[in-house]
Design brief:
Blueprint (H helix, E strand, L loop, with lengths): L15 E6 L7 H17 L4 E7 L5 H8 L5 E4 L9 H8 L3 H9 L4 E4 L12 E4 L4 H4 L6 H16 L3 E4 L2 H10 L7 E3 L15 H7 L7 E3 L9 H13 L6 E3 L11 H11 L6 E3 L5 H10 L2 E4 L8 H9 L3 E4 L2 H7 L4 E3 L4 H14 L12 H26 L1
Parallel strand pairs: 1-2, 1-4, 2-3, 4-5, 5-6, 6-7, 8-9, 8-11, 9-10, 11-12, 12-13
Length: 402
């Protein structure tokens, strides 16, 4: 991993053309932001090392793809082989190769493929670096249907059996990987995600954004997608406790409401909010523009992340970048990310969360908009350099086996 010396442990050579499969913001905002921040970090801290080539389906919204095209060196390609309805996994498992995707990679002279949530086959003629974001399907199997759980597990096992190089986002995920697959001998690297939003995402006037969403000057922010494991219900329970005690605090929530594992999950949560009479306390803002997300984050009293499981939390990382106070579920990965810089509560303890909300609200300073912290470059550079090192090692090992 990066040792802080400013020198990446990679060989001097021309840029690697690395293929990425586009992650929809609506389907997984954290993955979308991961790619966006990774490409920006590579452009800023490792120019000339990697050319990201982002492959997207033909129907993906131009507005969601546009931010990637603005990053120096990034190429965006839309092709039918990456449409959602195209089922390449069966071909990859049966014949050993997702031929349509492989042809698209060849057309664009790809040197390394970054595999996330899609297996391209053990006969793929270029090296593949498989990203395992987390092992939620093993830790929280009840949140997946049997088909979804085994589809994910089959993909992981296929990548392991194909001796893919594997990229993880935390030491916590590394421990989970070793426990889940003790016999795996795959090369494994850890690159901790770090974020430094581009200047164009920080242009929104915080006061105007707060007014547009009809929020009070003091509020907490919960920008997690409405997946079941994100545990929004615990926040609703905590607000109910405070309402019963006559304590009035506001939590602003934003993010996609898509939950493929339970389509009525969001509507059920909002019924709970209405039934308990806390509509004024739990405010859902929608899937808002990224400049609004950052404006609200920077001006909130604290970020809340009540999640039951994370691989490496994007929202926590973004709060760290601005020095925003954090109230987090007591997960090993949250401790790894935030250390002593956050308040923690057990994932099912609404009383503890309610106590933290009151304590922060009472001690909060007058509303202010925070700026990016000094020294952030070092953390983002480490992320970019670790990623480059993982790509180079993947390509080197593949070359030795070929």
């Amino acid at each position: 991993m990066y040792d802080g010396s400013g020198i990446a442990p990679v060989a001097e050579q021309g840029p690697r053309r690395v293929a990425f499969t586009y992650i929809s913001r609506r389907r997984w905002a954290g993955g979308y932001n991961y790619q966006l921040n990774l490409f920006a970090a590579l452009a800023r801290h490792c120019p000339g090392k990697i050319v990201p080539v982002l492959f997207a389906g033909t129907s993906e919204p131009a507005a969601e793809l546009a931010p990637f095209s603005k990053i120096s060196g990034v190429e965006v390609v839309q092709a039918g082989a990456f449409d959602r309805q195209y089922a390449g996994l069966a071909a990859a498992l049966v014949t050993g190769i997702d031929r349509k995707a492989a042809d698209a990679f060849e057309t664009k002279s790809i040197d390394v493929v970054f595999e996330n949530a899609r297996f391209f086959g053990w006969r793929l003629p270029v090296p593949a670096l498989a990203w395992f974001p987390d092992f939620q399907h093993r830790k929280l199997p009840g949140l997946f249907s049997p088909v979804a759980r085994w589809r994910r597990e089959l993909g992981f096992r296929a990548q392991i059996a194909s001796h893919r190089s594997i990229l993880l986002s935390s030491e916590s995920a590394l421990a989970d990987f070793r426990a889940a697959y003790p016999g795996a001998s795959n090369p494994v690297a850890v690159a901790r995600f770090a974020t430094e939003p581009s200047p164009d995402l920080l242009t929104a006037d915080a006061a105007a954004v707060i007014a547009e969403h009809r929020l009070p000057e003091k509020f907490f922010y919960l920008p997690n997608q409405f997946y079941r494991h994100k545990n929004h219900l615990l926040v609703i329970n905590a607000l109910t406790i405070l309402k019963q005690r006559g304590v009035d605090v506001v939590v602003a929530a934003s993010g996609s409401t898509e939950e493929p594992r339970k389509s009525d999950y969001f509507s059920g949560l909002m019924r709970e909010v209405a039934d308990r009479g806390i509509q004024a306390n739990f405010r859902y803002l929608g899937l808002i523009p990224l400049p609004h997300v950052y404006a609200l984050l920077c001006s909130s009293m604290a970020l809340i992340n009540p999640s039951r499981f994370e691989g490496w939390s994007t929202t926590v990382e973004e709060a760290k970048s601005f020095g925003v106070p954090m109230i987090l579920s007591d997960l090993a990965v949250h401790r790894e990310q935030a250390g002593a810089g956050a308040r923690y509560f057990e994932v099912d303890n609404a009383e503890a969360l309610a106590g933290h909300l009151v304590a922060v609200a009472q001690s909060a300073e007058p509303p202010a908009v925070r700026n990016l912290l000094p020294g952030l470059d070092k953390r983002v550079a480490a992320f970019a350099l670790d990623f480059v090192a993982a790509v180079e090692k993947c390509a080197d090992l593949f070359g030795r086996r070929s």
